[in-house]
């Protein structure tokens, strides 16, 4: 069962039926229920898909959703008007265009350049600007990188060919991305808490649990409540709705999460929050 999405699934099904002009078969039905008089009225089960022909008015349908908790929703869906065919503007000269290529190794970079060059020599109808846009925004970027810059297709293809063959060319730039990226940890503020937060990690991670207990010991001198009881949602534990409880609890959880990440080899260069 799709739970909260059950109603929208019916809407999607009906929109597709309107789009394709077909009323779909009712699934998982062998025999109609005998508790309904199917001979009366105009309601019937569709044992097979049937055409939904165009008439002088838009197609319309009702979609109902009835939930066991009392939900009763009904949506009337109407066929969208036929959209006017868009006018394709004349192609404007792109000017100088960059084509970005990358790979995990030098060999992978050259192979990618060769595949791209061969593809574009065969598909001459594709715009060099569109190709450049896709290469720059829709491809995974790896460490070894190159960019070919030229004002026409021939110049760009020549640059790809030079890259594939491992030689230099005008408008071809290569490099390796820096590997000195640093990690920062962001500690959230009040409002991110919930009863039972971190309880799973207390049981599953000795590193996390040890630091939580260290924090609990440090806090015990200043509070009349137990940090561990608060996190586990124990009976009688102090409420996370209290400002004097939630702020120290969040601090302890974040410090312990930071220690857990450090145990995995993630060393933060900065902490904010």
Automatic annotation (TrEMBL):
One of its GO terms (biological process) is fatty acid biosynthetic process. Pfam families: Acyl_transf_1, KAsynt_C_assoc, Ketoacyl-synt_C. Coiled coil: none annotated. The lineage of its organism: Bacteria, Bacillati, Actinomycetota, Actinomycetes, Kitasatosporales. It comes from the Bacteria. Keywords: Multifunctional enzyme, Transferase. Residues 1-79 form the Ketosynthase family 3 (KS3) domain. GO terms for molecular function: fatty acid synthase activity. This is Polyketide synthase.
């Amino acid at each position: 069962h799709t739970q909260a999405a059950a109603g929208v699934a019916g809407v999607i099904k009906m929109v597709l039926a309107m789009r394709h002009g077909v009323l779909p078969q009712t699934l998982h039905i062998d025999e109609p229920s005998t508790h309904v008089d199917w001979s009366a009225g105009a309601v019937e089960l569709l044992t097979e898909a049937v055409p939904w022909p165009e008439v002088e008015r838009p197609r319309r349908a009702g979609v109902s959703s009835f939930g066991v908790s009392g939900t009763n929703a009904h949506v009337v869906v109407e066929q969208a008007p036929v959209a006017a065919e868009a006018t394709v503007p004349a192609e404007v000269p792109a000017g100088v265009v960059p084509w970005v290529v990358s790979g995990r190794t030098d060999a992978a970079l050259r192979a990618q350049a060769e595949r791209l060059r061969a593809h574009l020599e065969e598909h001459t109808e594709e715009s060099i600007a569109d190709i450049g846009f896709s290469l720059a925004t829709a491809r995974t970027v790896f460490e070894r990188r190159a960019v070919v810059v030229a004002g026409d297709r021939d110049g760009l293809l020549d640059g790809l060919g030079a890259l594939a063959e491992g030689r230099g060319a005008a408008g071809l730039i290569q490099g390796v991305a820096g590997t000195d990226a640093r990690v920062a940890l962001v500690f959230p503020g009040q409002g991110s808490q919930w009863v039972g937060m971190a309880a799973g990690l207390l049981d599953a991670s000795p590193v996390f649990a040890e630091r939580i207990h260290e924090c609990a010991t440090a806090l015990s001198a200043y509070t009349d409540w137990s940090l561990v009881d608060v996190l586990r949602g124990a009976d009688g534990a102090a409420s996370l709705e209290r400002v004097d409880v939630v702020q120290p609890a969040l601090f302890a959880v974040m410090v312990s999460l930071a220690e857990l990440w450090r145990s995995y080899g993630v060393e933060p260069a900065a902490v904010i929050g």
